[in-house]
Amino acid sequence: MAAVTALYHLKNKEDAQNQSIERISSGLRLNHALDDAAGASIVSRMTSQIKGLEAAMRNAADAISLTQTAEGALDEVSSILHRMRELSVQSANGVYTGQDRQAIQNEVGQIQIELARIAQNSTFNAVKMLNGDFTNTAFQIGFQPNDTAILSIENVDPTGLGEYLTKTDQLRNSSASFMPAAAPIAANNKAAFQPRISESENLTIYGNVGNVTIDVNGGSTAKEIAASISSRLSETGVSATAQTRMNVEFTETTAGQPGKTDTVSFNLYGKNTSPVLIAANVAFGVTNGRGADLTELAAAINGATGKTGISASLSVDKSTMTLLSDDGYDIVAEDYTLVGVTGPNMVVAGADEKHAALANVDKLSLKAGTDPNSVQVSGEVTFRSPFIFSVASGRHQI
């Protein structure tokens, strides 16, 4: 019995000695679960976290590499877009001929092709980054399931760049023609007396941020509608701008009065409520088809821009003039008069942002000294958002 007891104690001492030797040789306090069961559990959990963090660090490095690759491609995209902008500004110069502008357009076409190539061929590990497919991609950058970073890269293909737009072009109801068509008004009537939306209605905007219904009062101008929409930008993600354009040209003189110059006058309203008289000499066209020269008339309108908020620009042959209210005020020309010459009518049409040709939109001929001798053109509201949205109207179709 004494021998068994001695052997038991010897075994315990040997185990303790072996544990001490193992700790010294490994440098670890815990080499087995039996050394400290609770401590071993903690060590196992922390080891798992460390391994997860190491993998997360590799994932983060991959994400950084991907974004750096995408950044390099986007730098090229930015350079192309800057060049397109430069060419568009250059082509707007009046000194260039149609052939010159075609050469500029050819370059734009070539760099558009290059832009499309970059969008379709920019890849990282065979994953396309710039064609619109790389959306809501998660990067695991921590050991917890929710330790993720979400990255989306928008489509930079020429067909995908820009803003989503919805316009109020051709918005009509049974009682009023809204825009862009011109409509006659009685002589001496002002814009305030001829509202373009005759009845109150509501617009419901379905944006990426949320949905909002906006009340539009009867008689609201495009400027007022755009301001109401933009004031709810934080709730919808959709803003709006307003512009009003009116194209003007003159018919030919009657036979026997070729190329005569005479004075054209009318009252012009934009942001102003009091009449601003526009009067200028116009060299009218003749029956052989030569258009009128509207240079002096455009200069007179531009001289009053500070009062009306309306500017005028001429076509290349100076026979057609486009009036622009960049704030979306209604444009009203009232009491068109002409001294001496008979025959020429002032032909007016609403125009959209692309400066539609007079032949492609509704027109109205103003006649000196008889009705109709006044006209009102309302604006166009453009809804804008970098994300897809929709707009519904209670009375109109948008």
**What gap, in angstroms, lies between the N and C termini?**
104 Å
What would you call the quaternary organization? Answer: single chain
Average pLDDT rating: 76
Q: How would you sum up the global shape?
A: elongated
Main sheet attributes: strand count, strand direction, barrel closure? 7 strands, antiparallel
Low-confidence stretches: 169-198, 355-361
Number of helices: 7
Determine the structural class based on helices, strands and strand pairing: alpha+beta
Radius of gyration: 37 Å
Q: How many β-strand stretches?
A: 21
Number of domains: 3
Helix content, binned percent = 25-40%
Order of helices and strands: HHHEEEEEEEEEEHHEEEHHEEEEEEEE
Strand content: 25-35%
Primary descriptors:
398 residues, alpha+beta, f41 fragment of flagellin, N-terminal domain, 3 domains, 7-stranded antiparallel sheet, 21 strands
Notes on the structure:
- With 398 residues, this protein is of the alpha+beta class.
- It folds into 3 domains: 33 residues; 102 residues, f41 fragment of flagellin, N-terminal domain, CATH 1.20.1330; 235 residues, no CATH class.
- Helix 2 runs antiparallel to helix 3.
- The relative contact order is 0.13.
